[in-house]
Each structure stands twice: as C-alpha cells, then as structure tokens.
Amino acid sequence: MSRRGEMALIAFLQAQNCSNYAGSWRHPETMQDYLKPQYYQRIARILEDGRFHMAFFDDRLAMPDILGRDHAEAVRNGIRVVKMDPVSILSAMGYATEKLGLGATYSTTYYEPFHIARVFATLDHMLGGRVAWNVVTSLNDSEARNMGRSEHPEHDLRYDRADEFMEIVLSLWDSWDDDAIKNDRETGLFADPTKVRRLKHHGRWYDVEGTFTVPRTPQGRPVLLQAGQSGRGKTFAANWGELIFITQRNIEAARANYREFKESIAALGRNPDEVKVCPAIYSIIGTSEDEAAEKKAQIEALAKPVDGLALLSEVLNYDFASKAMDEPFTDEELAGIKGLQGIRDRVVQGSGKKNPTVADFVEVSGRGTIRDFTGFHGTPKKIADEMTEWFETDACDGFVLAATHMPGAYEDFVRLVVPELQRRGVFRKEFAGTTLRENLRLPRPRPFDWKRPA
Questions:
Q1: Which residues of the chain, if any, have pLDDT below 70?
Q2: Signal peptide location in the record (predicted)?
Q3: CA 247, 252, 257, 258: dihedral to nearest 10 degrees?
C-alpha cells in the first residue's frame, strides 16, 4: 500500500526554560522570552508554515530535584526547572494558527478522569478539533509529593490503574451523540436526552456516576498520544495509543520495534494502520557536512555532566548522587526503579552488564545530551534521504522532532529539510483537512468503538 505524502511530523515541546535538550537554553540563538505567549506562538506559526501535523508538550509535575535530594543543582544549571501548565499555552498557540494539531501531557496518576475529559474536550471545541492528550502515569516521588502524596506508585500498578482511567475518560467523551443538540427554539427542545448517556462506572480504582457536561467534539474525541518503552508500558500504548512516540538508536532496532508494535496492536483487535509509530529525533542541519559538524560540536558542548545526572535521577526516581560513578547497581536497586523502566532496560542491554554502574547509565542512556534521541545530522539532502529510508522501509510512520535550540532548530528544519521531503513525495505540501484526525489520516471514531473483547 502506497504511503505517499503520509509521513507524520510532530514537534516535541516543553513549557519550560529549555527544550528537551537541557543545554538548549545556553545556546546563543535560543530566545529567552519563554514566559510569554509570543514565544510559543512564534514556534506554532513556524510549524504550521512547515505543514507539521502537531506540536505537543511533554510535562512533569516537579522539577528535577532528586539529585542530592535538593533542587539547587537543577536550578543553578537551568535543568528543566521552569514547568508551566501546557494547556494554557496550547490555547495561545491555537489562536495563532488554524490547522496545526496541539497536544499536552496530563497524568492519570495525579488527575481525575472527569477533569482530564473536560479539559481536553473543551479545548478540542475551542480549537476546532485539533487537540491531543499525551497520556502518562508520571515518574517519581517529587511529583507525588507536589500532588499531596507520600510516594509514587509502583510501575505496573500505575498502568493497571491507568487502563481503568482510560475507560472512564473515553466513556465520558463518547457519552453525547453527534446529533444530540437540537437548539429548537420553536419546540423548546435544546437537546435530546436519549442521545446523552449517564456514566455508571464501578471498578477496582474508581466509582464514577454522573453525566458528562461537554458535547461530542469536532473530531469525535481528542487524539491519544502515548510513549511505550517498558513491557507494561508497551502493552498500554498498543491498547490505547493512536500516535506512539518511541526512542530508537538505529534503523534496525526501529524496524524490529515497529513490527512488534504493529503486531501487538493487531493482536488487541485494533487496526495497526490507524496507529502511528514515530521515533523521537534531533536534527542538526548545515549547508555542507563541515558546517553541520561544526554546529553539532557547538551544540554538544552545551551539555554539562550534571545535566545527565539530574535527568537520570528524575526519570528513574533514584538519587544518582548517592553512588560513585564506578559503583554497580545491585539487583535490588534495579528492581526498585519506579520511573522509566525502559531506560533501565536499555542501559542493561546496551552496557552488556547485568549490574551497570552510574557511569554506564550516563553513557548508554545519553540523558542530558543530544544522544538521548536518534540524530539526523548533515545537509538537508542527507537528512531527507535518511528519514525517507526509515519511513519507506517500515521503521516508522513519521518523526517526533525535538529542538537543540529554540526556535532556530525548527526554522532550519522547515526551511531546509521539509522541501526536500516534499520533493521525494513522502511529506505533504498541504494540510489534508482542518482537524488533527483528518491531517493524521485517522478515521473519525464512532462512540464506544474502543470497546473490544478482553
């Protein structure tokens, strides 16, 4: 089946003082007005001009303050310490654009189903059906304490609870039929009550009984994003995600992971063609290979060792200052990691050690550096050739582009790489429609079509 023009391009944003790359704020070309709406609106317009499908915000509910059990190093070095609520920023970006999809991260562990359902359904109405929810279960004890809990729940338990959470949110989004509202002044009928369903959910984790207050949205319901890296996380992503973003270091691993995800999705009774799998990437572009290499060296030099230690402590919920760099993790310590177990598993595999050291975690994970994600670096032609190969050989359905500096990384990509992808016929020249689902070529969902045999 031809996939001409169907490569998905997603921008990976942060509502903070830096991009995913913690050192990006140190780049001389990074804009510093990240506390103002104009900063995000500028990025949104660049992405819409480049025909990107969507921009979405990753998020945490705490700054990286686990290293040394203190916030000092993170604050001193600007390691992702400013974290604003992304939904407010999506509104500002949405009013500055017309067709760009916009997504935000909200946690199933620290919010309630009704709250998330109402926030994202409302936003989808306000922005004309362009909204996505990035579903996370959160990472660490800092987030738990900020949200009034003593500690973060165990990894698999979070996903068990999140499965029930998803059933409630989707039931709420699907509780109004498309034609429920009549607005008939002559008869006095506002809406047909037979077309609005009351939720009566009584499960292991939640008892929710009530009627949802937001009618069905322009695209049926918001698009669901998910990042599945661990075993349990992959199952959750295959069950619920419509766009799944992953991290892969090479094309062979990406092909294997892509095939595994598509098979898992099909085994769950879903259509794998209706789920996009997209790896996160960095891209450094030069008019020549020498210029690109020079830029890359400049960007790599922005990273500090403390960046990686603080970010590893954050995502693994473990204080990396409590061990020497050459000290191996014990079996008990590895088993007790509550955060992103996919990173732990990748380090064990990549280091070839059953008990890797702190130095192994820093080196293999690449956390805090641009090695954290796949890198496409070089001339626009070279980058477009590599991306096309990944797309056309079933390594992915598109890419999630993180920025090395803001907004220059996106400006360079839109100006130099997008035209090359369009010339190859793998990326579109115009938007397919007005909603995010139309532009991702995802069908408009029918109410309760997510219910499948167990």
A1: 1-2, 339, 454
A2: none
A3: 100
